[in-house]
Amino acid sequence: MNRDGVDGTALTVLVFFFLVVTVMGFVSVQGRRGRHIAGDASALDQWGLADRGFGTASSWLLLGGNIYTAYTFIAIPAAMYASGAVSGFFAVPYTILVYPLIFMVMPRLWSVAHRRGYVTPADFVRGRYQSRGLALAVALTGLLATLPYIALQLVGIQAVFEAIGLGSTNVLINDLPLAAAFTVLAAFTYVSGLRAPALIAVLKGVLLLFVVTVAFVILPERLGGFEAVFASAREKLATPDPHTGRSAGVFVPGTAGFWPYATLALGSAMALMVYPHTVTTVLATRSRDVIRRNAILLPAFTLVLGLFALLGFFAIAAGTRPVGMDGKPNPQLVVPQLFVDLFPSWFAGVAMATIVISALVPAAIMSIAAANLVSRNIYREFVNPDATPRQELRVSKTASFFVKFGALAFVLFLDRKFALDFQLLGGIWILQTFPAIVAGLYTRWFHPAALLIGWTVGMAYGTLTAYSIVNPGTGKHFGGSLAEIPFLGDGRLGYLALTACVLNTAVSVAVTLVLRGRSRPARDETSPDDYHADIQNGQPPALLADDSPHTSESSQAGSPAGRRGPDSTE
Amino acid sequence: MTAPQSPAEPDRPRTRGRWAGLSLAALWLPFPALLWVESYARPEPWLFGFPLFYWYQFAWVFVSSALTWCAYLHTTPGRGAGLR
Q: What is the pLDDT of residues B18-40, one digit of tens each?
């Protein structure tokens, strides 16, 4: 337990799993190279999308490992423990609703990306609207939103280290394990690309299922059954908070909680679809069918997440006291502390390793996705339009390194609170790319300039409103993600990201209506049948694109890496 | 809410028949079921020690997955038998 020094057994188990992960990370580079897209021209496809070759099972583990991050497994139960259902359990409807959306929308993105060789969401926007400004906006939003997300994975790892007593009042020693873990992560991502998290995701999946099964076989009985657990949670959450005088939490949402709950669930589901790391994993699948099957199978992880969320209530029933190294109570530590308190050291060690591995998988994928945004949509677009695939790959690999150390610096040198604020903003920002990306998959009706104006309005409104939300307890800005929905007039609260997105869409529609009569719509690199393309006779559509009956402009665009330049000779 | 639909563009060319259309429409069912929070935001009735609010949402994990499976089967050509 924390203040009694390090738990040796738990630490040994943790270190063992970390070594396993390290070996897996470096070994995974020997994937099935060039199965679909042969030749050096697809260098970035190989590193950043693993040759777009993942089948149903590997995609299931990779997408699952990516969507359900360590931070989720730490923060959702923490929210349940501290404030109850509205800020915690919404993750369950959120991760239910995202799959019908993925089933309907993502195969279209997969098809057009395969036909045109797109690697990032901004690539698609660039090709669809022929607007460099809009593509840059989408790319920068993705980068800004992803960085703090990676930083939060580190916060998850820190919570684990703190719970097993690994830490010190000496700042340098305290941060050493985290820095070491991250350096290894950065190294194997650099070497192996997307294959590293894909292989480690297998371990993550197995460990998660094991830990959740054991926890839910043992804990309910030890704590007197589910009914007793829910009863003690109900009692604790109804106790008035000494600061505000109102009840501390929500056991079942009341009238005031309906809109926040629903908008948080819907807004988060929509945001998840346009996060660059989700797009990266979706594009790394082998076929449209793999995505559609995964939409059926991924809810299994939602079940795991829901059970993890209930661990927050279990901790209430068990009387867990999450106290940090600094002696202050910290709800973020509640899950690690629960395992340390109620289980033998070896199992606590396995649970801690599970959380750490749960952090490494998405951190690797997110850094790859962010790196691809840098190389494709900033470097290639604005710095070196004639970049060879090899140069592009080098920029991507280097960027993945810098992105990760940026996130590390974030956590080590800035206040942890700052990472949380930034992540909250990230969710608001990323949803502002939804109209351009998702609407773009269905229609070219929107004018790119209108989408850019809508994006600007949504970003500004979201950021300013978030700043104006002051936490009543601490008096600090960025006090939450719920804000009054304007024009309803009854003070109803809603998820700010969604409100801003609705505003964004309304502005985009209005400006499009104004512009349509005046300016000629720009060209569209894609064609309608791009959105349904699938593997035919074992041939990937990327190879078929050259034979497709389009203009010379589009057939040039069709070769995977040679999107705009005569550089595919390398 | 902002889900885009363009009637002008011929969508989903592989969709066949009435069942395909129905199964695709059924994909939207989880949205009202989960976003209309008022309909399930209460503890009673309890089931297996879970209050309604919690077991209802857990149940929808299964229902939603089953609906997606249905839609998959009815919109995938040449694969009516099940998941491979």
A: 777 888 888 899 999 989 988 88
Q: Does pTM surpass 0.90? A: no
B14 touches chain A (CB under 8 A): yes
Burial zone of A24 (CB within 10 Å; 0-12 exposed, 13-18 middle, 19+ buried): buried
Question: Distance between the two ends of chain B, CA-based, in angstroms?
Answer: 34
Residue to substitute from A105, A106, A226, A237, interface B, most B β-carbons within 10 A: A226
| CA distance linking residue A391 with residue A403, whole number of Å | 18
Q: pLDDT, tens digit, for every residue of A357-411? A: 888 889 889 999 999 999 888 888 888 888 888 888 888 888 888 888 888 887 7
Query: For every residue of A224-275, which 3-state class applies, written as one string?
Result: CHHHHHHHHHHHHHHCECCCCCCECCECCCCHHHHHHHHHHHHHHHHHHHHC
Pair of tokens at residue A387: 């970049």
Task: Confirm or reject contact between B34 and chain A (CB < 8 A).
Answer: yes
Write the CB contacts of B68 (distance below 8 Å, at least 6 apart in sequence): A99, A100, A103, A295, A296, B27
Classify the complex by whether its ipTM is higher than 0.90, answering yes or no. no
Q: Which residues of B touch A101 (CB under 8 A)?
A: 3
Residue contact A96–B64, C-beta within 8 A: yes
Q: How confident is the model at residue A489 (pLDDT cuts 50, 70, 90)?
A: low
Q: Are A117 and A49 in contact (CB under 8 A)?
A: no
Number of H helices, E strands in chain B: 3, 0
**Cα–Cα nearest to B45, from B54, B33, B35:** B54
Rounded Cα–Cα distance for residues A548 and A445 (Å): 24
Residue in A229, A257, A266 closest to B1 by CB: A266
Option in B6, B49, B65 nearest A225 (CB): B49
Kindly determine whether residue B9 and residue A292, on different chains, have CB atoms separated by under 8 Å.
no
Interchain CB distance below 8 Å, A96 and B49: no
- Contact flag B43-A292 (C-beta cutoff 8 Å): no
Separation CA A5–CA A305 (nearest Å): 31
Mutate to test the interface with B, among A80, A104, A235 (most CBs of B within 10 A): A104
Task: Tell me the shortest Cα–Cα distance from A274 to chain B, in angstroms.
Answer: 13
